[in-house]
Design brief:
By secondary structure, this protein is mainly β. The protein is built from four helices and twelve strands. Helix content is about 15%, strand content about 35%. The N and C termini lie far apart (about 50 Å). It holds the Pfam family Acyl_CoA_thio.
Length: about 325
């Protein structure tokens, strides 16, 4: 008999039940083996741009790489380039090259292919556990816990009830589709009156929808890779949103460093900032914090951002 479900969190806008197996494990990151070190991945959610979601490609590539290493090593870093636009109408093939298998570190090269051409390349490095007395980390920002914040659906409903905000949607339409397999709670939601004062920084709580469990740490890292690309590059446009709208925005590269064990189906704080933008590019840095203050993952990404001025009748 299943345990009774907790009542919906009214303040959180009714978070979904947590007893269902995460679709990120059962579908998105469940690759089909075709041959040794060759896998096929399908698509679960496609953004409104009708281009493949970069986080899906990163996550699936890491799944493919992880299948070629032993159980006693775990990913500590990956470095990726997006080289062509992905086609959402066909699957992606992942080819793994076992670059090096060493006593402490192992390196894998992954190429994602569609229509006979690479759309993405990635190097992932895995390490056996090696304790060290030398340890330090930054301090986690002081923010309200996720239980005190509105979820996306509640924020949308709040905007729709305010006549002054109906046309703005606070930039949340990008995650309005229920098929997105992650949950987000913004720490400081944007409002029109804040647009001219915004810094290139944002923070939000994030977790995978559904249950993953303790399971394999490799899978939690793959889920975090999927999550890490969501709304990340958009941090660079925040100070400019009142003046410009995005005409074209895609990721060029993506890097991650994994520091400590975590569960991707538990709330983590995603701290994002953009130290630089120019030459139609933007650079963003990110940190994923566990709720207990441990720095779990660091991220960096650069992407193409082309903008054009708002017309005289609208600012969003």
């Amino acid at each position: 008999m299943s345990p009774p479900q907790d009542p919906e969190d009214e303040q959180g806008g009714g978070d979904p039940p947590r007893d269902l197996r995460s679709v990120l494990v059962t579908s998105v990151l469940n690759l089909e083996p075709l041959d040794e070190d060759l896998f096929r991945g399908t698509h679960y959610w496609v953004p409104s741009t009708q281009r493949l979601f970069g986080g899906q490609i990163v996550g699936q590539a890491l799944v493919a790489a992880a299948k070629s290493v032993s159980e006693d090593v775990h990913v500590h870093s990956l470095h990726c380039y997006f080289v062509r636009t992905g086609d959402p109408k066909v699957p992606v093939l992942y080819q793994v090259e076992r670059t090096r298998t060493g006593a402490s570190f192992s390196v894998r090269f992954v190429k994602a292919v569609q229509h006979g051409r690479p759309i993405f390349i990635c190097q992932a490095s895995f390490q056996k556990a090696q304790p060290s007395p030398m340890q330090h980390q930054f301090s986690m920002p002081a923010v309200p816990p996720p239980e005190e914040l509105l979820n996306h659906k509640a924020l949308i409903d709040q905007c729709l009830r305010d006549p002054k905000l109906q046309k703005y949607q606070v930039g949340l339409n990008r995650i309005a589709a229920q098929e997105v397999p992650i949950e987000i709670k913004l720490v400081n939601p944007t409002t029109p009156c804040k647009l001219k004062k915004m810094e290139p920084k944002q923070m939000f709580w994030v977790r995978a929808r559904g249950h993953i469990g303790e399971g394999d740490m490799k899978m939690h890292c793959c889920v975090a890779a999927y999550i890490s690309d969501f709304a990340f590059l958009g941090t660079a446009i925040l100070p400019h949103r009142w003046q410009y709208k995005v005409d074209f925005m895609v990721s060029l590269d993506h890097s991650m460093w994994f520091h400590a064990p975590f569960r991707a189906d538990h709330w983590m704080l995603y701290e994002c900032e953009s130290p630089w933008a120019g030459s139609s590019r933007g650079l963003v840095h990110g940190r994923l914090w566990r709720q207990d203050g441990v720095l779990a993952v660091s991220c960096a990404q650069e992407g193409v951002i082309r903008v054009k001025p708002w017309d005289s009748t609208s600012k969003l």
